[in-house]
C-alpha cells in the first residue's frame, strides 16, 4: 500500500488528526489538506469530522469544497459528520447538505423503555448489522464499533449497515464510489482498522 | 444494543504510569503508550489517562505523551488531571485526545464547561465530580478530594449537563479504595437525573460489583484502576462474566 496516497479533507471540524494517525498505523501515506489539486489527485479521499452541520456546510460552500466533494471519482469515505453532510438534509440547523445520499439526518430523542434510558448523544460501542459489500468484511456482522453522535441518518436505499438506538438508523451508507460511516472506524479497535484497510484496498 | 463500557484508568506522572501493572509483560511497566495498547487489545472500551504531574514542565511532557497515545491507540481515550486553561485543552485535543475531563477547574469556573462545549463540542467535555456523603448529603470536593466546595452533587451534575458537559465521571470518595462495591443507589439517581452518560468510579472490587453498577446503578460505564492493573480481574474475564449475566458488552 506504499504507493497509495490518501487525502484527508481539512475544514473547520474537530478531531481530524485521529484519522491521520489511523492511516499512519496502516502504513498509508496521508495528507490533511484543503488543497483542491491534492484532493482530486489523491487515490482515496476521507471526509471526517466532528462539528455542527450548518456552520460546516457554510464553510464547505465558502471554500468551494462542496462541489469538489460531489465531483470526486475515486473512493471517498465520509466519517461521522462527514456521513451526515453527504446526505440530503440535516435537522441540525435545518441544513441543506451535499445530497450524495438521499437519506435525511434527524435528531435522536431521549427515550426510556424496558431496556432503560436512551441518552443523547448516542455514545459508545454498538453492534452493526445488515452489512453490504464494499468496506465491510463478511465476519463483521454484529460486531461492535464506536459511535458519538446526536443526529443520525435514516435508513434507505443507500444504507450499507444498520444499527439500533432504539430504532434502526444508517450506521453506514454507500452509493457508487461514495462510502460513509456514522461510527468512527479510527476509534473502533481491530474491526475499525480492518474497515479502513478494506477502504484503502477497494 | 449499546454496550456498557469498561474503562481502565491509568495515573501518569512525568510521562510514566505510576501504579505497578501486572497484567502484561513486566518490561512494559511504566510506558503509558504500551500499557494503553495492551488494554485495548484486551478489550477495554476506553481508557482514561490521569496526569498527576505537579510541575509545569511535566505538563508539557503530557501533551507529547497524548500525541503518542493517539498515534498508537485505536480506541477512544480521555485525558484529565489539573486541566484549567482553554489553551491547554485545545493543545490536548489537537494532540489527539478524544475527550478532556475537568474537575476542580469546572467548579471554580463553571463557564469553562460552556466555553469547551462551544469551542470543541459537548462530546469532548467530561466533567469529573468527586463527592463525599455525610449525613445523607453528597458534597463535591476539589483538589483531589481535599477541599469541600459546598456544591451538592446532583444539582452540580445537572448544571454541568446544562452547561454542555457530554458525560459525567462520578467518583464516590466514600467508596473509592474500599473495594466494597460502587455507590449504586447514588449512581442510579444520578443516571435518572441526567440525560448524558454517567461513568461510575470508586469501589470496584469484584466482577459482581460491575454487574450491580450496570443494573441497579444504571451506569453507562464503569471505571477502575487497581483491580485491572494488578490483574485481580482481567478485562476479558470481566466481560465474559457480564455477558453471561445478560449485560450488553462488547466482546
Provide a brief overview of the structure.
The complex is a heterodimer of chains A (202) and B (251). With 202 residues, chain A is of the alpha/beta class.
Name some characteristics of this structure:
heterodimer, A: 202 residues, alpha/beta, Rossmann fold, seven-stranded mixed β-sheet, four-stranded mixed β-sheet, 15 strands, 24% helix, 32% strand, globular, B: 251 residues, TIM Barrel, 11 strands
Set down the secondary structure blueprint.
The complex is a heterodimer of chains A (202) and B (251).
Chain A: E1 5-9, H1 17-25, E2 29-33, H2 36-41, E3 44-47, H3 53-62, H4 65-70, E4 76-79, H5 81-85, E5 89-90, E6 95-96, E7 104-107, E8 111-113, E9 116-118, E10 122-127, E11 144-149, E12 151-153, E13 159-164, E14 168-175, E15 178-181, H6 189-200
Parallel strand pairs in A: 1-2, 1-3, 3-4, 4-15, 5-7
Antiparallel strand pairs in A: 5-6, 7-12, 8-9, 10-11, 13-14, 14-15
Chain B: E1 5-13, E2 16-17, H1 32-42, E3 47-51, H2 56-72, E4 77-80, H3 86-94, E5 99-102, H4 104-108, H5 111-120, E6 125-134, E7 137-142, E8 147-152, H6 153-163, E9 167-172, H7 184-193, E10 198-201, H8 207-214, E11 221-224, H9 226-229, H10 235-244
Parallel strand pairs in B: 1-3, 1-11, 3-4, 4-5, 5-6, 6-9, 9-10, 10-11
Antiparallel strand pairs in B: 1-2, 6-7, 7-8
Helix pairs in contact in B: 1-2
Amino acid at each position: 500500500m506504499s504507493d497509495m496516497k490518501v487525502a484527508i479533507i481539512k475544514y473547520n471540524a474537530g478531531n481530524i488528526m485521529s484519522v491521520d494517525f489511523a492511516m499512519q498505523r496502516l502504513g498509508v501515506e496521508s495528507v490533511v489538506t484543503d488543497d483542491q489539486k491534492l484532493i482530486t489527485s489523491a487515490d482515496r479521499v476521507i471526509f471526517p469530522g466532528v462539528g455542527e452541520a450548518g456552520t460546516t456546510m457554510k464553510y464547505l460552500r465558502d471554500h468551494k469544497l462542496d462541489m469538489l466533494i460531489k465531483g470526486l471519482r475515486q473512493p471517498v469515505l465520509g466519517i461521522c459528520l462527514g456521513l451526515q453532510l453527504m446526505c440530503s438534509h440535516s435537522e441540525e440547523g435545518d441544513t441543506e447538505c451535499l445530497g450524495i445520499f438521499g437519506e435525511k439526518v434527524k435528531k435522536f430523542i431521549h427515550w426510556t423503555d424496558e431496556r432503560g434510558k436512551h441518552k443523547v448523544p448516542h455514545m459508545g460501542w454498538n453492534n452493526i448489522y445488515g452489512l453490504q459489500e464494499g468496506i465491510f468484511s463478511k465476519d463483521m456482522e454484529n460486531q461492535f464499533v464506536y459511535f458519538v453522535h446526536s443526529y443520525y441518518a435514516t435508513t434507505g436505499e443507500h444504507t450499507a449497515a444498520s444499527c439500533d438506538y432504539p430504532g434502526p438508523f444508517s450506521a453506514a451508507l454507500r452509493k457508487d464510489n461514495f462510502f460513509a460511516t456514522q461510527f468512527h472506524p479510527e476509534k473502533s479497535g481491530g474491526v475499525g482498522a480492518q474497515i479502513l484497510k478494506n477502504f484503502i484496498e477497494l | 444494543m449499546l454496550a456498557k463500557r469498561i474503562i481502565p484508568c491509568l495515573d501518569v506522572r512525568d510521562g510514566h504510569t505510576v501504579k505497578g501493572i501486572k497484567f502484561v509483560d513486566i518490561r512494559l511497566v511504566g510506558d503509558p503508550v504500551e500499557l494503553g495498547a495492551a488494554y485495548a487489545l484486551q478489550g477495554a472500551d476506553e481508557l482514561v489517562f490521569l496526569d498527576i504531574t505537579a510541575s509545569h514542565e511535566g505538563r508539557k511532557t503530557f501533551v507529547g505523551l497524548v500525541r503518542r497515545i493517539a498515534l498508537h491507540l485505536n480506541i477512544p481515550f480521555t485525558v484529565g488531571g489539573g486541566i484549567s486553561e482553554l489553551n491547554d485543552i485545545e493543545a490536548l485535543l489537537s494532540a489527539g485526545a478524544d475527550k478532556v475531563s475537568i474537575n476542580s477547574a469546572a467548579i471554580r469556573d463553571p463557564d469553562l464547561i460552556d466555553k469547551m462545549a462551544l469551542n470543541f463540542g459537548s462530546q469532548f467535555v467530561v466533567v469529573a465530580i468527586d463527592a463525599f456523603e455525610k449525613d445523607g448529603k453528597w458534597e463535591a470536593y476539589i483538589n483531589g478530594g481535599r477541599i469541600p466546595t459546598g456544591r451538592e452533587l446532583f444539582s452540580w451534575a445537572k448544571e454541568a449537563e446544562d452547561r454542555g458537559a457530554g458525560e459525567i465521571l462520578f467518583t464516590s470518595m466514600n467508596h473509592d479504595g474500599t473495594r466494597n462495591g460502587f455507590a449504586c443507589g447514588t449512581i442510579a439517581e444520578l443516571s435518572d437525573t441526567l440525560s448524558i452518560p454517567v461513568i461510575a468510579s470508586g469501589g470496584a472490587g469484584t466482577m459482581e460489583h460491575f454487574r450491580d453498577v450496570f443494573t441497579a446503578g444504571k451506569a453507562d460505564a464503569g471505571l477502575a484502576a487497581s483491580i485491572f492493573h494488578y490483574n485481580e480481574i482481567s478485562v476479558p474475564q470481566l466481560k465474559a462474566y457480564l455477558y453471561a449475566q445478560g449485560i450488553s458488552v462488547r466482546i
